User: What shape does this take?
Amino acid sequence: MKAAPSVLYDEPGPKARRRIRQGSAVAYALLLAVLVAVVVRLADAGQFTAEKWDPLASPGNESFDALWNVLGTGLQRTLVAAAVAIGCSLVVGTAIGVLRLNLGRVARMPLVAAMEVVRGIPVVITIYFASRVLPDLGLTFADAPGGRFLWYLVIGLTAYNAVIIAELVRTGVESLPRGQREAALAIGLTRWQTLRLILLPQAFRVMLPSLISQIVVILKDTSLAALILGQYQELLRASNLAAQQLDNPIPMFLVTGAIYVAINWLLSKLAEYAERRGGRRERERRSASTAKGGKNPSAGERGGAKQVDLVDQTN
Assistant: This one.
């Protein structure tokens, strides 16, 4: 099947395609040469010897058990920080998104301005701000579960990611057909009931893939604690300390990177599964509506069917 022509640029001709292939081949050759040079230098430094990998791969090594205990503890702290930050970001972000949707144009201007400021700040600065400014304000979290450094990390991650999630909530709600809101108001629901019972559940289904992608970002951003909160030994910090003691940074960080990749791969597969499941449910619902009507509805009839379905669900 011939591909559809692009409206953004002219389709390259034979000479242009040949130049593109030649340029790609040169770029790949240069990248391969750099990779080979790096591998040779590391091999000359002894980073690929069995001695460097034994603490990670050989159960008979005297450091094997202690090393994996340290990495396991670091992974546990990473997952705990990510889980708490994800939960707080979802709650705070949803609240901010709902507040922005319910405020008037003038009343929401200060909120929008504050959101834009936080969104424009790198997340590493929000974590640093939480760890340096909050203690001066008397918020030390000395007796908090998990230690005060965990909560500084969580507050920094929440401050940044809650704003992103609030934008996802807003765009998810605004992407829904207006007939959903109008039908809910027509049957006597208040604006808050319409948002809570009708719009938000559908918006979360729409934005679920983007939401899980943001969860992956939160998980990866927990590694910033290794740069700022040295006392909180999450996975990257634990790997760095172990690599300094065993003098095997390359094997250690390759294994650590593989752990992050595995976790994020599982989350991406969860996003794909959720997207497929949501699409299948939507197709089944439309098929059921078509079967009930006995014919394919027109555009106007589809809008009416949505309102009738909405009324049936809320009664």
